[in-house]
Amino acid sequence: MTLCSPHRTSADRCPGVLAVHEAEDGGLARIRLAGGRASAPQLAAVAAAAGQTGSGLVEITGRANLQLRGLAPGAEAQLAEMLEAAGLLPSRAHDRARNLLASPLAGRHPDSVIETDAIVAGLDAAICAEPRLAGLPGRFLFAVDDGSGLGRLGGADLALAPRPEAPGALRLWIGGAETDAAPGAAEAPALASRAALGFLDLCAADGVVAWHVRELEDGAERVAAALGLELIAPADEDSSTPVAGIRPGFQPQRDGREAVTALAPLGRFDATTLDRVAELLGPLGAEARFSRWRTVTVPDLEPAAAKELGAALERADLIVEPATVWEGLSACAGLGYCSKARFDVRAAAQRRASTRRGGAPAEHWSACGRRCGEPSSAPVAVAAEEGGAIAVRAGGRSRLVADEREALALLAEEAQ
Question: What's the maximum distance between 2 C-alpha atoms anywhere in the chain?
């Protein structure tokens, strides 16, 4: 029997395009990108929306979505119209339910064994076609992996990935537990959609508020049973172990072409930079693939075109250089953007970058004890605590220090 979180008393408050979160710097809107994908015209539309309705700041989230900051009061209607015209809001009712994570290379990686673009598109369409799935929590997550591991996420509520022993067939995980389902690529989206309906049915039957399958008593087993499936492996405790991730630089594809990946420092850029990326991709007929590592990947390029694009992205203040000190370094919104922030965490993270070595373990800085945006598996974490102290977790130990200066010194010592 499993009941991991019996204390939910209300629906989650994850923002969307229509449900805007009021932050200290204004409204915060989150744009769901199925599989992290956006075309050049769509990027241009996001850049225009960021400049016309907000402060111009755009952030890449830990689920490969984009969010706009500093929205003016009442700007939701204009924002929704602009994004809807660009195809970024296919269903207003399902705005917050379209949480679909996938590999930014989607079948192109040398280790991939199945193409996933059509699966992700089919799943997105299946979600939007089912009115009841509009009721999914904003934190409920679908994941689709191509065999490379780049689409894998241990916290996914429903996940699809290839069966190595059965080419062309997929596996379905429910709440991290593997089932005996073996759908083909064409059938997989409908099966995942039915599993999501099963989750909602259990929430209603139990009379509880849950954000994830794992929060329901025997949730994975019961959702599987409702589909006529059985669990063949329990939830994998190691499934949340982070994969290496997609790194800045150039990635050879299975078809001989290349993908170029650029990193946005601390996951943030402005509307001008985003519009410049759109201008670069347009003539190439290419699209952007955002990832949970706060990167943007452009696939399907001839090697010469990839090199030219990489240089242009560097000139636009994105980072294409491998093993950069910015890789794996993240921070929450911080002072001036969140009323709960206790210090300028983004400025501190930038100072940290000056002493951090390339290839260092992933590291997250939080401006308060809520630790927003901190990956559960981050080996290094810094967070402000009550009373002004700062908690530092590194090298397997957690210590309290007096201020940011001592935190930076401690992390520099750990690197020796």
Answer: 58
Helix/strand/coil for 223: helix
* Total residue length of the chain: 416
- pLDDT for residue 238: 44
Q: Which of these, 153, 43, 136, 44, lies nearest to 97 by C-alpha position?
A: 136
Q: What is the pLDDT of residue 7?
A: 59
Q: Kindly report the backbone phi and psi dihedral angles of residue 395, in degrees, each rounded to the nearest multiple of 5, phi listed first.
A: 60, 30
How, if at all, do strands 170-174 and 177-179 pair?
antiparallel
Per-residue model confidence (pLDDT) at position 239: 47
Residue 237 CB neighbours (<10 A): 9
Question: Worst-scoring range by mean pLDDT, 49-53, 176-180, 235-239, 334-338?
Answer: 235-239
Nearest alpha-carbon partner for 364 in 334, 400, 330: 330
Tell me the CA end-to-end span of the chain in Å, nearest whole number: 46
Instruction: Report the DSSP pairing between strands 158-162 and 142-144.
Output: parallel
Task: For 118-146, write each residue's pLDDT tens digit.
Answer: 999 999 999 999 999 999 999 999 999 99
Rounded Cα distance between 371 and 384, Å, is 9
290 or 376, higher pLDDT: 290
CB 198 within 8 A of CB 225: no
Q: What is the average pLDDT across 191-199? A: 98
User: How far apart (Å, rounded) are the C-alpha atoms in residues 393 and 389?
Assistant: 13
Count Cβ atoms below 10 Å from residue 65 Cβ, excluding itself: 21
Concatenating the DSSP letter of every residue in 294-329 gives SEEEEEEE-HHHHHHHHHHHHHTT-B-STT-TTTTE
Secondary structure (H, E, C), 85-148: HCCCCCCCCCCCCCCEEECCCCCCCCCCCCCCHHHHHHHHHHHHHCHHHHHCCCCCCEEECCCC
Half-sphere exposure of 348 (CA within 13 A, CB side): 29
The Cα 365–Cα 372 span in angstroms is 9
The model carries a pTM of: 0.93
Give exposure, 363-392, as e/b (b: 16+ Cβ within 10 Å): bbbbbbeebbbbbeebbbbbbbeeeebbbb
